Amino acid sequence: MPVTRRRTAGTMLAASLLVLGLAACGSGEEDAAADSGQAADKQITVYSGRNEQLVKPLLDKFTEQTGIAVNARYANTAQLAAQLVEEGDKSPADVFFAQDAGALGTVAKRGMFSTLSEETTAKVPATYRAGNGQWVGVSARARVLAYNADLIQADQLPASVFDLTAPAWKGKVGVAPTNASFQAFVTAIRVQHGDAKAEEFLRGLKDNDPQIRDGNGKILEDVGSGVIPVGLVNHYYLGEIAKEQGTPPDALKVKLHFFPGGDTGALVNVAGVGVLNRAANDPDVQKFVDFLLGTEAQTYFAEQTFEYPVVAGVPGPAYVPALADLAVPQIDLNDLDTLDATVTMIKNSGLVP
Amino acid sequence: MRRLAPRPALLAASTAAVAVALIPLAYLAVRTAEAGWDRIAAELWTERVALLALRSIGLAAVVTTGCVLLGVGTAFLVTRTDLPGRRTFAVLGSLPLAVPTYIAAFSWVSAAPRLEGFWPAALVLTLCSYPYVLLPVAAALRGADPAQEEVSRSLGRSGWQTFTAVTLRQIRPATAAGALLVALYVLADFGAVAILRADTFTRAIFIAFDLGFDRTGALVLSSVLVALTLLLLTGETATRRRGARYAQLGGARRPAPRLSLGAARWPVVAALLGVAGLALGVPAVNLARRLAAGVSRPGALTEVLAAAGNSLTVSLAGAALTMLLALPLGLLASRAPGPLTTVLDRLAYLAHALPGVVIGLSLIFFGINVAYPLYQTHWLLALAYATHFLPLAVGAVVGAAAQSPAGLEEVARSLGRGPWTVLRTVTLPLTLPGIGAGAALVFLAGMKELPATLLLRPTGMNTLATELWTSTAVGAYAAAAPYAALLVLISAVPTWLLVARSGLLDKENLA
Amino acid sequence: MSDVVLSGVVKRYGRVTALAGADVSVPSGQLTAVLGPSGCGKTTLLRCLAGFERIDGGEIRIDGDRVAGGGRHVPTHRRNIAVVPQEGALFPHLSVADNVGYGLDRAARRSDRVEQVLALVGLAGYGARMPHQLSGGQQQRVAVARALAPRPSVVLLDEPFSALDAGLRAGLRQDVREALRADGATGVLVTHDQGEALSVADKVVVLRDGRVVQAAAPTTVYREPVDPWVAGFVGDAVLLPAVVEQGAARTALGVVPVAGPVTDGPVTVLVRPEQVRFTAGPGAVTATVLRHDFHGHDALVGLRLADGTRITARILDGAAPLSPGGEVSVQVDGAARAFPRDTAVGLPASTVVELAA
What we know:
The structure holds three protein chains of three kinds. By secondary structure, chain A is an alpha/beta fold. Chain A contains twelve helices and ten strands. Chain A has two domains: 43-140 and 268-320, Periplasmic binding protein-like II (D-Maltodextrin-Binding Protein, domain 2, 3-Layer(aba) Sandwich), CATH 3.40.190.10; 141-267 and 337-349, 3-Layer(aba) Sandwich (D-Maltodextrin-Binding Protein, domain 2). Chain A starts with a helix and ends with a helix. Chain B is built from 24 helices and no strands. In chain B, helix 10 runs antiparallel to helix 13 (215-242) and helix 15 (301-335) crosses helix 20. Chain B: It is found in: Cell inner membrane; Cell membrane.
């Protein structure tokens, strides 16, 4: 009797779903986030907009050395910023570890961060931290032009990022305009060359039939496979691809071109941390920030995530020029009013919906 | 139907369920009001918003049409023709439910890197969501009374005329219900439109977060999605009013005669295999290729299993909670139809088209301000799923309630059994399979859900979807592949049950 | 053994009054048919009796206990009744035996009561089957057995045979009546089929517009209907205007004796078609044959009288050659029933003398 059997199966499914589901909820209570709000309780809660695969080994190392447990919450940086703002004073977070200075600025503007000690901020060059001490960069990434060495010869590479709007590059440039790093880059153009130049560049880029991708990783993948000859990305994605393919970065077809001579195309952005007000006096949190700015963590960023260290004396990743040799444009990454105008400009350019 | 006595308990429970579904709307209202009229006007009265709205509606229309054609067509082929391998095709046609759009879209982009924009997104979304139409329509086709078709043929209508004039009308309520779910799903989907860069409202909302860290702007945009949803609901309600709901109430069911495909059978088999290849083969091949090409590997087996366990746990909890809320609402809708019931039922759908990130933020708002003890626990995540997926469950309960008509319960009462005994011995045994189908749909949606899960999960808890996100975000595709495969495999189990439930695996369907 | 009494029961749905003070008494151990056209309130009456609906006035007593009315509403499951609905409504997930045993307590389920009632309805040995494996008639028999099993005070049958084809229906309703009688059960049968009501019931209650118009034994309702409407509703009727003089009515069919005491004056008389005989005796009148419908066991002959009145006659010798246009002599056999003239208005459409059976 097929009908009966089907009914029985369905009934059992429904019943077991209910029972299991409710049991699951019950067990969930024990997992409720432990409140690490008390000072020196050997626990901190970190909202990490940086990827778990990239930073978890580092956080484990911290716990190993200090005995301080890290409750890490991983998500998209921008959405974590929105979450923090929504949580307000009741946020269980002690530290916001963000991919991007803009996200740190958003939370800082709400007055949710405590001011870091000068002792801490002094370790990092002024370019890579907030002027008011609300957050500090812990690693840096350079904007680069990735290119496929089979398709583009080194002598064909543009001297400036602005050359990419020339007809020679029509349909050949990969960009990820929805990425926060692109927005920082446009801000840098505005600061260095004014709004008119920035708008002209965006219009030129748009008219040059760019290859738009959802993220830097996808651009690099397509440059590697020869679908796109060149693409504007952050430098460390090359390291990630090499790691996934199990080859040294030098062996890849994708090469990185650092725009020379202080060109805006060589902007350096940071990933950084801010300490939330409730953890202002938590020595555990202070230890965590100090750890991130310590030699071991800085070396980890250079070797494992292929980023630039921001603390003097730690060597950078092997396959890229030293940070000191890059001519980095000077802009305030924290300036939110600037950010709003940039976003409007990018939206108006038609590069994003 | 005879008007039933008012049911205060049912009404109260239904109102509570609807209140849960309206949490995101309350949140949107609060935050939009904060923005102020000037800001709202500046955000919304732009050509860009008009274009986005048109594209979103266009995408929803194209995908829904595609799903109706593909879903009704496949349903007809597997239930009413002598197609070889009908059961296999019924399963193949339903399995795309187990494939998240972000996996499908990513596979397509990997296969054809220049694929982007409206039509590719429409293709991927259609391939992923046509089972939402196929399953209810197949069940309706099996349940429909063949006598009506015979009458039509006897009155001189051709096979095709009968199909359009009688059969399509018989299955219209099922088709409309499935189509509504598809349309709302398309409005809310982020995975496919982001990866394939189709410029829709939901993508614009995510970009507003990512590009400008602009929560207010994103939320103001979201309110337009609610308006679009209202539009869709009004349309669907209108079709409901014109077409009565059909239910098969007991009696001996006579299977409809099967149409012989004749010479067309092998081309039809090839076409169905083609669809299955596009919907299932492309992702499968891509996963295998990624696994072979990369050297990254997922964490220890224990981590993979823990993620699978967490996915199961939160999805089951979400399904259970959602069904608990959906039961009174579905029973009310089927037993005491009326204007009030219709309004409650429609309200439950309003948040269904909101993107996961907005659902996530609204539950954060709710957790922080109303239910702090639940914040960042499984409970709040389960509640988020209930908020988001309630319509999937309510539809199933309404269908299930038809399996236990009020007349049966009256007979049971007349035989001296009290209300609770009747519930236990008659109503539940008859409705549980349908309720199970609803739970399976919610479970599937929960397994695949990512944005709200990222925002609401207990700190430190990973699910298959979040692990997949973590790995792909750093290009560790080989590490991601096992999570993706496990996600699809686990999701295939409830999908199988849904197919079985629709009767497509019965022996009579083999004959 | 029990009595069911409904007194002045009122039930309204919004502005529609379904029952406008219905009085019905159901004698114990008998089958009472509630007969009426659709919309007369008969199903509402059954639902009120079952407790599915709350009544708005009057009261209902079962075995002398008030179960509804006067602020009291005993829920269905405490009324000791059992319903047999139109489509049987067997529980599709339970076997025949489990369906029949549904209303029984644990001990009774283990006794032979289930098998006993199944035998009563002619389905001994069917206990293990599932409902969908039964024919429509068998399903209906199981529904009856299920209702009988717990020995309720009253079994309520809601048009239980209407979904079945004619041949099956006649056999089944006699079997059900026998089963009820053999079990000593009290039954209420709601139906719109006068043949069904007259043939199986011990008592017929005719309902119109929410009110009882007549309640009596089947023969009484047929032979002595209280008004022309009932006359036409319970069977084919020839209604003729007439004038009564000294106990006999002068009609277009000749002079017909009138049953019962009637005052002289204008009346409407009821003649059943089977009372119209083809004879050429004294007092016979001439009629023209309009048509002849042969039914095997009898035939209906349409006639036009000299004054143009059309009537129907039922003749047993159905094969007799009667060609349309021919002339015959007819006469009324037995007494006619007379009604005051003004009650003839508002006849239901079906009572206009029609040939179709």
